[in-house]
Amino acid sequence: MPTSPDGDLLQICPRLCQPVQCIREVLLTFRAEFAVEGIQCNLALGQGYEALKINDAIIDPARTQQIVRALTRCAVAANADNHLSSRSSIS
């Protein structure tokens, strides 16, 4: 049994879910930070993704959200450091 939080990364639990919804949920948790930093965040699906018409996929939603949270934190920090304009996109 893992005793550290990093040990949980070894547990992969894929299940049928909606990947776009997983990402939306994460971005919603960052609303306050986006507002403080003056970031406008839009989730825009690329034409390639939309052409595939994927609604459900077998993924590990917890791991997917963990990755999106980490990337979003980095983007917010970079924006704070460099005053960049941020936009999220899935292609």
Summarize it.
The protein is of the alpha+beta class and 91 residues long. The protein has four helices and four strands.
Q: Gap between N and C termini, in Å?
A: 37 Å
* Helix segment tally: 4
- Unreliable residue runs: none
| Molecular shape | globular
Detailed description of the structure:
With 91 residues, the protein is of the alpha+beta class. It has one domain: Heat Shock Protein 90 (2-Layer Sandwich). It is 51% helix and 13% strand. It contains 4 helices and 4 strands. It has helices spanning 19-29, 31-37, 47-52, 61-82, and strands at 15-17, 43-45, 57-59, 88-90. The strands form 2 sheets. A two-stranded antiparallel ribbon has the order 1-3. The protein has a two-stranded parallel ribbon with strand order 2-4. Helix 1 (19-29) crosses helix 4. The protein is globular and about 35 Å long. It starts with 14 loop residues before the first strand and ends with a strand.
Topology at a glance:
Blueprint: E1 15-17, H1 19-29, H2 31-37, E2 43-45, H3 47-52, E3 57-59, H4 61-82, E4 88-90
Helix pairs in contact: 1-4
